[in-house]
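$ run holo --ligand "flavin-adenine dinucleotide" --emit tokens
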Amino acid sequence: MTSNNRTVTVIGAGLAGLAAAYDLHRAGWNVTVLEARERVGGRVYSVRSFSNGLVAEGGGEFIEDRHVRMLAFAKQFNLQLGRVGSWQKQDGDWGAFEGKSGRLADEKIWGTNLHEEIERVWDAVSGLGKYVPDSKQPQTSREAERLDAQSALDWINAQDVHPLARNYFIQHIRAEYTTEPECFSLLDLARNSSMYYSTAEHQPNWRVVGGNDLIPRALANALPDIRMNAVVTSIRILPDEVAVTYKQADSHLTVSSAFAILAIPLTTARLIDFNSSLPYAHQRMVNEISYGAVTKVMIQYRKRFWDKTGWNGRLTTDSPIVITWLATSHVESEDGIITAYTGGSPGAKLAALSDEARVQLAVAEIEKFFPGSSDLIEHTATAAWPNEPFTRGSYMALAPGEVTAHWQTLFEPAGRLFFAGEHATAIQGYMEGAVESGQRAAASIISS
Ligand SMILES: Cc1cc2nc3c(=O)[nH]c(=O)nc-3n(C[C@H](O)[C@H](O)[C@H](O)COP(=O)(O)OP(=O)(O)OC[C@H]3O[C@@H](n4cnc5c(N)ncnc54)[C@H](O)[C@@H]3O)c2cc1C
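-- output --
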């Protein structure tokens, strides 16, 4: 085979792999997609087991206004979007800390306007953005080494903030980055600050009505060769081709192509035998980069009992569930779903429970805030991503030292093997980033 052959093997049919395969196919390349699961979409997983046709997202959920690629796909595939509402940084948010609970802005509960105290923390977080002038290249920032040697916990501990606002920040890191604050690089927090902790927080979010996975499904429908239940076990990068071996049922099959795109989480990539053909920096990156842990519990109630309370669904708590929101706020219905979203070490603890015990725990926590709510339950579902053999975590969560060690390598091909996925993009941790990384890998191959 020669490099003139317009053949590509894409490993992983999540958004990154599918977006790459879609562009390559439309550009006339012969694309084979290998997917380990029985379904496409990976960490986009819409749960349809609820009553009355309600759908909740077990994985990627919020599509932001600036997520132009995801919004473009929705338009292109004639999918309807439902507006979630802007619940971030609103004073309809509730908190539950140290045995007290209620509206963050209610001074009678907290002895201070906790909402304003938290806003002060966000202002300080926002100030970190100045340290990373180029969010695509944080490792080149002037103080990269110093910041990367510290954690988000080191930073918050050095701030003069209200103790409950500090607790809120810790829960925010667990929810947003799905890791513990001491395991999260301050340089990556600063990088994220330069992108997100600004007016954009108030932008509206969207969900695809009927399920976000309608996007990966539509992409997959346009592709001629997707092999399901195909678990890649070995990759050999050669001077003029890439040989990819996968296990399907009892067979081990090898497909060779001019290029390959590895669009799977690094947690599963590290189980692949690269036959010593991966450069040292890439092998280290694959082996060492940290991931977070996250679980969701989705609880369907017969009535939207929260409507009367003025609560916007967002509760940040030091209880074992970490955070909640309304999963069906974008559709009209008598009944509704609350999602408990648990990241960091609380997420790892919930993942270690049985599905039933995890659901029971979340139900009991919500019952504490809304006594009688558990009598209204119609249906429950849960997703524990660390337990998923083809995910093994949540998404990339760079620990201290890892930005300077690995960021640049994430974007460099290893010969004929390109990397894509939510980890290989500046829009990291998002569906949009996965798509961006896939489209970028495809464009590099098309222009090669
Ligand atoms: C609980 C949760 C909530 C989230 N919330 C949001 C949100 O609100 N908004 C947002 O934008 N993003 C969110 N995300 C992130 C978003 O879902 C991901 O960034 C994105 O879906 C990742 O896409 P990907 O293609 O990189 O990886 P994946 O979706 O993981 O796709 C990788 C694919 O590779 C397959 N695979 C793995 N190993 C192998 C192998 N050895 N051989 C063959 N195939 C393999 C997997 O089965 C999978 O289909 C969330 C993620 C989670 C887990």
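-- notes --
DSSP finds 15 helices and 20 strands in the chain.
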